[in-house]
Amino acid sequence: MLLTLSSENVCNTTFTSEAGHPLYVSSTPFRFGKWTTTINKYVSDDFQLEWDERFEVLCQIRWWDMHEHVVVLSVDDTTRKEVARYRRTAFGAFDILGLKSTKACLEIAPEIEHILDLVVITFIYVEKLRMDKEWWIKRFCRNP
User: Fold this and answer.
1) Over the stretch 18-31, which tens digit does the pLDDT of each residue have?
2) Pick from 4, 13, 18: which is nearest to 131 by CA?
3) How far apart, in Å, are the Cα atoms of 27 and each of 39, 75, 93, 111, 119?
4) What residue ranges of the chain have pLDDT lower than 70?
5) pLDDT in tens, 92-102
6) pTM above 0.85, yes or no
7) Whole-angstrom distance, CA of residue 17 vs CA of residue 9
8) CA distance 121 to 57
9) What distance lies between CA 79 and its chain's CA centroid?
10) Could you please report the per-residue DSSP string of 26-74?
């Protein structure tokens, strides 16, 4: 399965299927102090409903301050088999599951699709931590 992200900002993005259907939306309104990311899951194709009524809250992450380049999920055994990988936006196209893409996407192995909700929630959490770490390193650990 390949989920395409509308933005590399995982806290404010729409995850769409290979067919272009929205599956999840993450949003983090700007607030001073503690921020909360809400992850909504698409649950209805009823076009009589308003857009926001077609989603239900899957979870909320309340962030706190935490001060490598790619997020990968691997099986916790001796094989360390990769079962999910985040691919950031690329200037040149890359091949994922036989598809050419330049957009940020989350590649998910078929054997873990049954826990897709958990994979998406965990990905958003871990990628946000990675982004924060990268920001702090760029800001405060530059070589003069």
Assistant:
1) 999 999 999 999 87
2) 13
3) 7, 29, 27, 28, 17
4) 33-34, 64-69, 90-101, 142-144
5) 655 555 666 67
6) no
7) 18
8) 12
9) 25
10) EE----SS--EEEEEEE----TTS-GGGGEEEEEEEE---------EEE
